[in-house]
Amino acid sequence: MLLISEKPAITLDEIVKVMKANYYTIAEHVNRLKSAGLIIKKYQGRFVGHSLSPYGEKMVKILKGFIG
Question: pTM score, two decimals?
């Protein structure tokens, strides 16, 4: 979520590249964040951009408070 907050409209491929993680693992986590209402998917042709929902933005503020 912190990565998505830093780069709105980030694609799944970009998340995988930055995180250096398995594509399917990241896809599953992104789907769970969407199901929880924390992120929004925006379809842009072949690409899907991910950004925080208003609730996700609140959660990021809380997380940043914990990590300083």
Answer: 0.86
